[in-house]
Structure formats: structure tokens, C-alpha cells
Amino acid sequence: MAPQLDGFFAQVDSLSDHFIDRLRKAVAIPSVSADPARRPDVVRMGHFLKDELEALGASVELRQLGKQPDIPSLDLPPAILARYGSDKNKRTILVYGHYDVQPAEKSDGWATEPFDLTVGEDGRMFGRGSTDDKGPVLGWLNAIEAHQKAGIDFPVNLLMCFEGMEEYGSEGLDDLIEAEGKRFFADADAVCISDNYWLGTEKPCLTYGLRGCNYYSVEISGPGADLHSGVFGGTAQEPMTDLVRVLATLVDTDGKIQIPGIAEQVAPVTEDEATLYDGISFEMETLHESLGSKTTIFEDKKSTLMARWRYPSLSIHGVEGAFSAPGAKTVIPAKVIGKFSIRTVPNMEIEKTNELVYKYVKEQFAKLGSKNTLKVYAQHTGKWWVASPKHWNFAAAAKATERVWGVQPDFTREGGSIPVTLTFEQATGKNVLLLPMGSSTDGAHSINEKLDKKNYIEGIKLLGSYLHYVAEEPMSE
Ligand code: BES
Ligand code: MN
Ligand code: MN
């Protein structure tokens, strides 16, 4: 029987300004996990969520996760564990999200203040974290509130786990999830994560796979201090020269990873899988729009989706210690740290991949015959995850999507990573579903990140109705 949802939907609509205000308050807290100077703001964001949840009647614990491994003087922000409802006759759903955000400065090229939610006439709501992941996290709180105000019984017991270090590799959270798998999370019947995006701008999707992410540093040092290139140029071996030569050997222009042994670990394409891409609604045009250019490696949808979902990729992110300001400084940097990451896929193994990377980087450096010193190490690693979408958790989400958006969702995988997804699956032994709120043009991690008002408001309805459908869905599959 289809759940009665009209009262809930009407309540969400009438509370929409209030919900946008809540998002505005959250965006105003610059909870940038990568910036040690912003750590108090990340903690403040955690407390904001705790207060909001308690005001809604949830019981909330802040869990300290210890110190940050690479900066031992710095406390990690707390994980929030919350429970709303404990009715033995209801199912229990565990949801996860993150309250930290990527860095953002107006000077990066934002058209508006990044931490000041700016709602345009067209309904686009600009602000750092609007789509990744504050909008979706607040979606769960808003769904609770709309039920209360509409006087509708909440359909499930809701367990919530919100963290403040996701954008930095979910430092410290794996241990907590493993420890709580059979304690705080013990009652969970299924898991839902809202922290990804539609593939395009029109069609909703349900997501059953993510790539993993291994993040590496290559450090090259030699001189004792930065040097004058007029005095020392031509007489000293330069770390930056060595580094760009090493980085240049990692990947080619068409994205082909040059490290031997990586491609060999990738699961072959089965016949079933090969037929699945044609049915996915995905336009190269929309991709070009979100990319902001037409510089794609592939011209066709299938190769593009496969490259994003099921093949590994290697990206070079930056160089710490390099001269990067405008102008023309004639410096020889004494020590530079190149940063790159590999997105991993089935059946790549973290340790094996690390060993292949270390070996290759060291070999490439050795070929240079440089007297400088090289170190290569992983900053963080996170596993890939692929689940079965043939599960009642997905069936319920599909019905909710159809109810709210009037279309059947595509079943998709994604190229991004949420390091704890597999940890939740393993620690609870339950099915994990990714249920996105935002769309492909939201620009997570980019300048002018936004969430469309329509996606936020309908997304709240989606999360709420998912809980109704998942409460009723037969558990058979
Ligand atoms: N929300 C993203 C993950 C994501 C991105 C899912 C795109 C699906 C599509 C998440 O906040 C994120 O950015 N994760 C990081 C993890 C990394 C630091 C290990 C990422 O993917 O870079
Ligand atoms: Mn996210
Ligand atoms: Mn992110």
C-alpha cells in the first residue's frame, strides 16, 4: 500500500523558507576540514548539528576521535551519533553524511561570498557545502521536523552518523564504525547515504558503486634552503626539476596510467555490464556544461561513463613548496611535495597498489641520476565499493523517487569516493544505498557550488518518503 505522504509534502512546502534558513546558518559556518586554522569552525558546525538535533528531540552523542595523524597537536572534530525514535515495532535506518566542506575563498573566483548562502531568482542557492554535504545532511533533520509539524508518525527509528573529516579522508571514523557496528548501529536494518549527485540535471538516480581513493605525496629535497637561481642555477641539482620529471611519467594526456601492474588488477567487463551503459540517461552536452569546456578525453557516453565508474584514474593535484604566486620570482625551491591520487576500482587492492606506486616512482627518480632525496608515501587510502542494487533498500528508494520526481531513477555508479561506505557495509552487514539530492551542475569542490532550491525541497520529500517506503518494503530481496 502506498504510504500517505501528501500531508508531509505539504508541510515541507510550507516550511521551505525555514529549511533554507537552516541551510543558510550551516553554510555560514566555514567548516573546512583541510585547514587547521578552521578547526574551531568545524567543531562549531558539529555543535550546531547537535543543538538542532536535540531541539528536534533526538538523543545525541559527540564522539571524540583523537588527534589528527599528520598534525598530532590537532584534535579531530567529533563524530555525531544520534538516534531519533526507538520503537521496537519499527525498522531502523542508519544514515551517514558529512558536515565538513572543501576550502573556498571569494578570490578563487566565486561570484558571491562562499559562506553566505545566496539564493538567486532562478532558485539556485550558492554557497560552499550547499550540495556537498550540508543540504543533504539537513535534509534528514528537515524531514523529521516536517513530520512533527504535520503530526505524522515518523515511519522508522533513525540512526545518524555525521562526521567532520570526510573531505580529508574520514580520518578516525573507520575505527568508530567498526567498534559501533554491533553496538550503536546494531539495530540498523539498512544504510542510506545522501552525498552524491544526479548524473545530469533532469533524471534522478540511485547509486550502488563508488571508486576508492589512494592519495600520495612525493617529496623531493636537496638544498638546505630556497636559493637564488642566478647564483645557484646551473650549479645545484633542483628538486622542482626532478619532481616535474617524475610527475610527468605517471599518466598520459588521455588519462592512461603509466604505472605497470595497475591495469592488470582491474576487473574485466562482463557481457551484462557492457549492455548497461546504453540505458543510462547521460548527455555529453551536460558533461561539457559541468566541465565548463569541451576538453573531454572521450566523445561518447559509454567510454566516458566507464572511465568514470569502472576504470582507475590518476590526477595530479598540486605541488607544496613550489612558487605559485603571480609574478616572476627567481627562486629555486629547496623542497617540494607533489600530490597525486589514484581512484581505485574492483579488484584493485590498496596495499598492492601502494607498492606498485612506490616502486615505479622510485624507479623513475633513480633514472634521473639526481643527488637529491626522494620520499613517496600515501597520505590516506579508501576502498572502492560496489553493492547489489537488487535489494529492498533500493526498491524502496526507487518507489520514493518515482513518487517525488515522477520518473524511475537510473541505477548508477560514481567516480567519487566516500571512504566509509564499505566500512558501514562490513560493520553492519547491511545493504548500503546512495540516494542523491543534488544534480550534476552543482559544482561540488568547485567555485560557485550550489544546490537548486527545487532539489533541496524535493530532496527533503525524497528522503522522508524513502523512510516511509523502506519501512514497508518486503524484506525478501
Ligand atoms: N560527496 C563526495 C563524494 C562523491 C563525489 C560521490 C562525486 C559521488 C560523486 C565527497 O564529499 C568527496 O568529495 N569525497 C572525497 C573523498 C576523498 C577525500 C577520499 C573525494 O571523492 O575526493
Ligand atoms: Mn560529500
Ligand atoms: Mn566532497
TrEMBL record:
Co-factor binding details: Binds 2 manganese ions per subunit.
Active-site annotation: D100, E166
Residues annotated as binding Mn(2+) 1: D132, E167, H445
A GO BP entry: proteolysis
Domain of life: Eukaryota
Binding locations of substrate: D195, H228, T330, R343, S417, H445
Site (Important for catalytic activity): H228
Pfam families, A to Z: M20_dimer (PF07687), Peptidase_M20 (PF01546)
Cofactor names: Mn(2+)
SUPFAM superfamilies, sorted: Zn-dependent exopeptidases
Binding site for Mn(2+) 2: H98, D132, D195
Domain Peptidase M20 dimerisation: 216-365
Keywords assigned: Hydrolase, Manganese, Metal-binding, Metalloprotease, Protease
Alphabetical list of InterPro entries matching this protein: ArgE/DapE_CS (IPR001261), CNDP/DUG1 (IPR017153), Cyt/Met_Dipeptidase (IPR051458), Peptidase_M20 (IPR002933), Peptidase_M20_dimer (IPR011650)
One function term, GO molecular function aspect: metallodipeptidase activity
UniProt xrefs under PANTHER family: BETA-ALA-HIS DIPEPTIDASE, CARNOSINE DIPEPTIDASE 2, ISOFORM A
Family: Belongs to the peptidase M20A family.
Protein name (record): Cys-Gly metallodipeptidase
Species whose genome carries this gene: Coniochaeta pulveracea
